[in-house]
Design brief:
With about 270 residues, this protein is α+β, with helices and mostly antiparallel strands. The protein is built from twelve helices and seven strands. The two termini are about 15 Å apart. The relative contact order is 0.12.
């Protein structure tokens, strides 16, 4: 059964249409959603979508209050993401020195390859994938760099749980967080899926440094697969993520997408996202 948290409310749907629909429909959606946007009590998801709204409309937004709030969302995401980018580069450097290759997932890969604007897609953390044989080295490398594993777990405990978990969260300081993945998708333990992600990996540029990211097809699958996951908080950002990948890339391999869904036993989930 679909989690209601993965579908937008009526006002969020209008907001997304105002961001992504063709001009005439987008203007109608913007006019319709504006009376429903209480800027003093806006939910966090809609607040982040305001950055997309600013990107689409800029000075053409219908009133000063909405323009200022959308600009604030835009610049807040940009500033936060600059810190995340620097964290990602530091993690990449440390892992490479330890002989570990990593593949960046989710927000970072989407931002640098598809949104192509670091003010449009908020990132709470840095998600990276390593090969199963490199997990222990990666854990030790992160710990030496000051990262603290969730639950205070040691390397041996994390290794014992790699069969029943897909990732482990690490934190550092008050607002630094990264997720170390050995399987790319939550509740999917098929080694074939992870291997396809590695086989399809592409090189990208982050702050003029080379990093590895999934190909567009794998990112689209990842976005849709995670869109159905149950969560305490709304997960509807899969919608703008998927739209952005589809709009920015002419390289979607639909057979590969179906193969990933079959290997992950997520055919029904992918069907509901389409």
């Amino acid at each position: 059964m679909n989690s209601p948290a993965c579908w937008p409310t009526a006002s969020q749907e209008l907001l997304l249409l105002a961001c992504f629909a063709p001009d005439d429909l987008a203007r109608m959606a913007l006019d319709a959603c504006r009376p429903q946007l209480d800027l003093d009590s806006l939910d966090p998801t809609s607040d982040r979508f305001l950055s997309l709204l600013f990107h689409r409309w800029g000075n053409r937004l219908p009133d000063r209050a909405l323009h200022e709030r959308a600009y604030l969302s835009h610049i807040t995401i940009w500033r936060s993401n600059q810190r995340r980018f620097l964290l990602a580069l530091a993690i990449t450097r440390d892992l490479r020195q330890a002989g570990v290759q990593c593949l960046f997932l989710k927000g970072l890969a989407l931002t640098i390859c598809h949104y192509r604007d670091s003010a449009l897609r908020a990132m709470e953390d840095v998600d990276l994938l390593v090969r199963p044989n490199d997990v222990a080295t990666a854990v030790e490398t992160l710990r030496r760099a000051g990262w603290v594993p969730e639950e205070g777990a040691g390397t041996a405990e994390i290794m014992r749980k790699t069969r029943v978990r897909h990732a482990w969260q690490f934190s550092r300081g008050e607002d630094e967080s990264c997720d170390l993945h050995w399987h790319p998708v939550l509740r999917c333990y098929s080694p074939a899926v992870a291997e396809l992600f590695w086989e399809g990996a592409r090189s990208a540029e982050l702050l003029q440094r080379p990093v590895s990211v999934p190909c567009a097809t794998d990112l689209l699958f990842h976005v849709c697969a995670h869109g159905l996951q149950w969560s305490w908080t709304p997960q509807i950002r899969w919608i703008p993520d998927a739209l952005t990948v589809l709009r920015s890339s002419a390289e979607i391999d639909w057979e590969r997408l179906l193969n990933l869904a079959a290997l992950a036993e997520m055919n029904v989930r992918l069907h509901h996202r389409s």
